[in-house]
């Protein structure tokens, strides 16, 4: 197999010890060994979510976890306020519509984070308290945008709507305080900042969330969180789990906490800042606004005259560097470079060097080494790493 450097918004490069854990022998998922494993995983995830409450593990992608959040918390006909900042926020709204909810969207320009004042004003107008839920995205990989979740929590204030958060691509890479900020159902997944192969969704639920779940009327079976909690209390999952991915997550969490939560946050922020600096030096335009930069993915418009699709193809085929393109209305307009996973500083600099060569191959006016130098200044700490 040709060696490639994967710098996507997910899945991400996985460290060798994490991959090797997937070769461990199978165990009884109804036995004491699995119960101990599940308990370790929940202990490891709670500080990352910022909660003392329940953290459940589902055998699915992040989208499965988001479906579980909607199907368990709401009833057909419920009015939900969706606050998308890109394709994945819109996907969450589509899931809600599929389950019969009425969805109102709070418009946000692409590249911007949710306007806290606009959210506050919309909720202030809801004097009859008709809005039953608020759908938010912590980090939107399609646009390279990260929302300020603490500020949005303050904007929601004492409105009684249930607060559901897609934290799939942000959790573990930046601070999240579920309990302190008052979020009710928060969903993440294994294949992003935790640097594990796909296969596990994690769903954290507050007391308010459980109360809503007990009264919701939507149909659910495989993704019934009540059943998931019932089995979790016995040290089991409701259905057969992807045991090998659970092993990998256990090793990844050990590595994550050995590095330290704050160190993980700082690394992602430093990498994202280095990429932005390199891109700007090479003539790219950063797509996200300066107050809403993601730390897990940088979205950028290529230099004038450079076709985004051609750049991605040249990088992949000639240099073995795999980045992502745009989605939906941004298809063919942007490139997206991830910071998550088992990625070293030398990997990052090598990829930026490959981008320089690919730009030259496509006829762009580029001074070789300038992007690498700009990124190096950030990585060496000579230029402050912004969020």
Reconstruct the topology from this structure.
Elements (H helix, E strand, L loop, with lengths): L4 E2 L9 H6 L10 H18 L4 E6 L2 H12 L5 E4 L4 H12 L3 E4 L10 H10 L5 E7 L1 E2 L4 E2 L2 H8 L5 E5 L11 H4 L3 E5 L10 E6 L1 H9 L9 H8 L10 H17 L1 H21 L3 E2 L10 E5 L6 H12 L1 E2 L1 E2 L9 E4 L6 H17 L8 H10 L8
Parallel strand pairs: 1-13, 3-4, 3-5, 5-8, 8-9
Antiparallel strand pairs: 2-10, 6-7, 9-10, 11-12, 12-15, 14-15
Describe it for me?
The protein has helices at 16-21, 32-49, 62-73, 87-98, 116-125, 149-156, 178-181, 207-215, 225-232, 243-259, 261-281, 308-319, 345-361, 370-379; strands at 5-6, 54-59, 79-82, 102-105, 131-137, 139-140, 145-146, 162-166, 185-189, 200-205, 285-286, 297-301, 321-322, 324-325, 335-338. It has 387 residues and is of the alpha/beta class. Helix 5 packs parallel to helix 6. The mean pLDDT is 97. Strand 3, helix 4 and strand 4 (102-105) form a beta-alpha-beta unit. 49% of the residues are buried. A seven-stranded mixed beta sheet has the order 2-10-9-8-5-3-4, sandwiched between helices. The protein has a four-stranded antiparallel beta sheet with strand order 11-12-15-14, covered by helices on one side. It has a two-stranded parallel ribbon with strand order 1-13. It folds into two domains: 16-258, Aspartate Aminotransferase, domain 2 (3-Layer(aba) Sandwich), CATH 3.40.640.10; 260-379, Alpha-Beta Complex (Aspartate Aminotransferase, domain 1).
